Amino acid sequence: MATAIMSSSRLMINYEIGMDGEGNPLYKLKSYPNVKEAATADQLYQVAQALASLTNYSLSSVKRNDVSDLI
To answer: Could you tell me which residue ranges the DUF1659 domain spans (predicted)?
Structure first.
C-alpha cells in the first residue's frame, strides 16, 4: 500500500489588481512557500487577509498547494 508523505506546502494568494481595457478583472498571484503542515485552513485564511490588508488590492482567492511524495 502506498503512503503519502508531504514534501512541501505553499500558500497562494490571488489579488484583483484592476481592470483591462475591456472591463475584465486583472489578477496577480503571490506564492508563499514553506507553510507548516500543521497550519489549518482558518489560520492560513487569516494570514492571507492580514497580507491583503497591507496592499492596495482586494483579495480574490486563497489556496493551499500541498505536494506529497508517494512511497
So the answer is: 2-71
